[in-house]
Amino acid sequence: MFKPADLFDLSQTEHAALFEGCEYAWEALKKIKDYVKTNVRPALKNRCEGTAYIGEQVFIGVGTVVEDGAMIKGPAIIGRNCQIRHNAYLREDVIVGDNCVVGNSCELKNVFMFNHCQVPHFNYVGDSILGHKTHLGAGVKVSNIKLDRTNVTVEMDGKPFDTGLRKFGALLGDGSEIGCNAVLNPGSILGRGAIIYPNVNWRGILPANMIAKNKAGVEVVMKRPRET
């Protein structure tokens, strides 16, 4: 499930060339910077609501709305009919597909989003690829660097495999859903249609159409009237 086509519908992006020559999907992460630099054709075809900062090396497609307070440093390529909401912060080397949402107080860095992705509320996403129709709940954080600063590994054939990347957040397969306030640790890989429940601290590989949820129970008690 590590090949690009295992995780992503490559017809759901105008930038499928990014994956050319990639045996493993995470290899595209180190190509984003040069790809954006080579292919960005600065032009602002969007509409602004209020005042936003948009850098010189930025392309934004027709129908996209950039709201007040957003900061798009660039280089960045943003597609058509997107919403870049209030106080969104798009740092360097970001590709956003068509019909995407980057929401209030969200931060993106070295990120590739396929069409119809939603990163809508208080999210941090670093060094990651989000497949077609992926969705992050409010407060989801995608951590992209290990605390000991060593290369990120993934489990392959029962053994740790060195990706060669010091910064690698997550690969989210098409249609995957991440619940509110979940944390994805470096090197997380989710198959198509996988679901992470709210507040889960996830590490590793979740196969397609599987669900990861906490086992902690919730106690339910009878509501009693207060004494006066």
Task: Summarize it.
5% of the residues lie in helices and 34% in strands. With 228 residues, the chain is mainly beta.
Question: Would you kindly provide a written description of the structure presented here, covering whatever features stand out?
Answer:
With 228 residues, this protein is mostly beta strands. It has a single domain (4-212), classed as Hexapeptide repeat proteins (UDP N-Acetylglucosamine Acyltransferase, domain 1, 3 Solenoid), CATH 2.160.10. The protein has helices spanning 4-7, 32-39, and strands at 43-44, 47-49, 53-54, 58-60, 65-67, 71-72, 76-78, 83-84, 89-90, 94-96, 101-104, 107-113, 118-121, 124-130, 135-136, 141-142, 153-156, 159-162, 170-172, 177-178, 183-184, 188-190, 195-196, 201-202, 205-206, 211-212. It has a 15-stranded parallel beta sheet that branches. Strands 2-5-8-11-13 form a five-stranded parallel beta sheet, with no helix packed on it. A hairpin with a 2-residue loop joins strand 17 and strand 18.
Task: Describe the secondary structure blueprint for this structure.
Elements: H1 4-7, H2 32-39, E1 43-44, E2 47-49, E3 53-54, E4 58-60, E5 65-67, E6 71-72, E7 76-78, E8 83-84, E9 89-90, E10 94-96, E11 101-104, E12 107-113, E13 118-121, E14 124-130, E15 135-136, E16 141-142, E17 153-156, E18 159-162, E19 170-172, E20 177-178, E21 183-184, E22 188-190, E23 195-196, E24 201-202, E25 205-206, E26 211-212
Parallel strand pairs: 1-4, 2-5, 3-6, 4-7, 5-8, 6-9, 7-10, 8-11, 9-12, 10-12, 11-13, 12-14, 14-16, 14-19, 15-20, 16-21, 19-22, 20-23, 21-24, 22-25, 23-26
Antiparallel strand pairs: 17-18
